[in-house]
Description:
The protein is 26% helix and 26% strand. By secondary structure, the chain is an alpha/beta fold.
Amino acid sequence: VATALVFGGVTTTSGWEEITPEDAQDMIDSNLNAYLLDVRTVAEYKFVGHPNAPEDRIKNIPYWKFEFDRASDEYFFYYVEDGNLVANINNFFDEEVYRHFDPATDTIIVVCKTGGRAGFAAEDLEERSEPASNRLEKLGFFSIYRMTGGFKAWQDLGLPVSSGYEGIWKPSDFRGRSLKKK
Length: 182
């Protein structure tokens, strides 16, 4: 099922489907090639918690970079460019996804806090003008889902939660533009 989204008057079509947290849990339980991809920051993943899944079935790859600005003495997700608010995106997100998952066999369920960031991650990766589903399809990924409501919906439904380190992103995971598998 393709979904049409409208951003600033431009319609884009995504190749991903939305699924509920219950469906995501069922998919993880029943499909050994289904993985949760949590796109929140490492701090959110660890300290707020994340869906409880087997360590080899969940991966945290931050979509937005959370950086410190020495001039303002503040942390930020966004910056201003030409008077517009622009998300500070991990420009190597799709490469990292490619290194950690097998496009031929893996099903990826994208998760964030409430569903918005997962939508951006599933819709608009490195090339701002091209939907993420297209970027990942160029890399061979065709089985991508976005979990509606994000981790908050998962929690609200009483599904299992963890605050462990399983699947957490580490600086050693980052290799820039290389598409070498880990």
